[in-house]
């Protein structure tokens, strides 16, 4: 995300997996598809364990450069911080991220104010929904955390979210927003995470702003850029996805939460956030496309069935090579500028609209065939041949006459 002061623009316009256990990178024939359930209400459990492998000499040297810059941050421009965040290894550790993430989006020390208490915000209309989502996010907290600290973090998370939607009341809270907020909170703390989340949520280039509109249409429109990108890179894979009818919904939790909801490894989540915080707003969609391309052999081996394809794609294995995926995503972005894809996205959305209309018409016809109009009891007395031949006025007159005869002979029923 480019640094910007979100408060400067008063109008924000957007035009532009469930409880799934870790999946090994096996072919679809080896997967028990009956257990593949994607539900954004149930987050993946984060693994906070660090990999104690031999450190790459590149990372060691990069660590020295970052520390040197942090010793004198006032003379370091944002391009240097972005270079650290995007290059191999990202910002390496949370100690560096805590200081650099706010710099990537232009947050100043003056904006890092003390948060209000939870009691002060408990009357907000979204309070109950936010608390519900926060209580469901326990798996996103570090394991073994003491109860008192966990409760404090939950309260801080609730306050963080409510502060943003109170400051920008036109923004609509969405399920998944708390996954982004908790990542910022764990890394930056409650003071710095608030202005940081504000930058991401409001403004002309705020990447989360399309998700916080009255409907999901802006989000769906942006996610539709994934399919043309895949088609340009691998036409056979795109054909397979299109034939299955899987669409883009499998990737919705990835996009809404910047993969924070769907990945099990904390190190993978924060590595992606390093890049996303200083990338173009649509870049996560290109990462989604690169990830699907990486799993092309499994997709092509899967049955061309919407349910099975959705289950395969929505469950992410733990050993994804995100450094390589980010390199591919950057290449895809450089070669497929979003403005060059607008025509293909528009054509895709027209086809989807036509298909929806055809499906709705087919359903209307089926309902009409299953539920023919009931004739009135009196109309059943009229012979079928007469009902077909008689004009409407004649039929009404005959029905009235029959009713009069009926009432004449059974006056007690009428009374």
First-residue to last-residue Cα separation: 78 Å
Largest sheet: none
What helical percentage do the residues reach?
55-70%
Q: Report the total helices.
A: 20
Order of helices and strands: HHHHHHHHHHHHHHHHHHHH
**Shape designation:** globular
* Poorly predicted parts: 2-13, 15-41
> Mean of residue pLDDT?
82
Q: Strand percentage, roughly?
A: under 5%
For this structure, the quaternary state is: single chain
Q: Describe it for me?
A:
The protein has 415 residues and is mainly alpha-helical. It is 57% helix and 0% strand. The protein has helices spanning 57-71, 78-86, 94-104, 118-121, 127-135, 147-167, 177-201, 217-223, 226-233, 235-244, 252-257, 266-276, 283-294, 296-301, 306-314, 322-335, 338-370, 384-389, 392-409, 411-414. The termini are far apart. The model is unreliable at 2-13 and 15-41 (pLDDT under 50).
Features:
single chain, 415 residues, mainly alpha, 0% strand
Show the helix and strand layout.
Blueprint (H helix, E strand, L loop, with lengths): L56 H15 L6 H9 L7 H11 L13 H4 L5 H9 L11 H21 L9 H25 L15 H7 L2 H8 L1 H10 L7 H6 L8 H11 L6 H12 L1 H6 L4 H9 L7 H14 L2 H33 L13 H6 L2 H18 L1 H4 L1
Short description:
The protein has 415 residues and is an all-alpha fold.
């Amino acid at each position: 995300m480019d640094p910007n002061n979100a408060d400067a623009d008063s109008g924000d316009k957007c035009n532009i997996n469930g409880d799934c256990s870790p999946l090994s990178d096996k072919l679809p024939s080896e997967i028990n598809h009956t257990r593949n359930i994607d539900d954004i209400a149930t987050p993946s459990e984060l693994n906070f364990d660090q990999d104690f492998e031999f450190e790459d000499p590149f990372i060691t040297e990069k660590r020295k450069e970052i520390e040197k810059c942090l010793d004198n941050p006032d003379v370091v421009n944002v391009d240097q911080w972005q270079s650290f965040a995007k290059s191999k290894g990202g910002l390496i550790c949370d100690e560096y991220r805590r200081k650099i993430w706010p710099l990537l989006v232009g947050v100043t020390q003056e904006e890092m104010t003390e948060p209000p208490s939870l009691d002060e915000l408990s009357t907000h209309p979204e309070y109950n929904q936010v608390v519900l989502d926060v209580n469901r996010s326990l798996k996103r907290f570090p394991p073994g955390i003491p109860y008192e600290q966990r409760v404090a973090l939950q309260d801080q998370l609730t306050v963080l979210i409510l502060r943003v939607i109170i400051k920008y009341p036109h923004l609509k809270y969405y399920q998944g927003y708390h996954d982004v907020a908790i990542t910022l909170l764990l890394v930056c703390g409650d003071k710095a995470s608030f202005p940081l989340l504000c930058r991401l949520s409001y403004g002309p280039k705020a990447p989360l702003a399309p998700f916080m509109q009255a409907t999901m249409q802006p989000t769906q429109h942006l996610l539709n850029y994934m399919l043309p990108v895949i088609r340009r890179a691998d036409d056979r894979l795109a054909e397979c996805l299109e034939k299955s009818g899987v669409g883009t919904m499998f990737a919705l939790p990835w996009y809404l939460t910047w993969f924070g909801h769907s990945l099990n490894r904390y190190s993978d989540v924060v590595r992606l956030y390093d890049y996303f915080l200083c990338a173009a707003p649509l870049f996560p969609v290109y990462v989604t496309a690169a990830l699907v391309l990486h799993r092309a052999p499994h997709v092509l081996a899967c049955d061309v069935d919407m349910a099975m394809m959705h289950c395969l794609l929505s469950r992410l294995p733990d050993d994804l090579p995100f450094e390589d995926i980010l390199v591919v995503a950057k290449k895809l972005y450089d070669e497929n500028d979003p403005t060059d894809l607008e025509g293909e996205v528009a054509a895709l959305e027209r086809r989807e609209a036509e298909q929806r209309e055809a499906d709705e018409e087919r359903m209307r016809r089926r309902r009409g065939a299953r539920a023919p109009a009931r004739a009135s009891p009196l109309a059943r007395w009229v012979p079928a041949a007469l009902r077909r031949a008689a004009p409407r006025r004649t039929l009404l007159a005959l029905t009235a006459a029959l009713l009069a005869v009926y009432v004449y002979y059974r006056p007690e029923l009428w009374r």
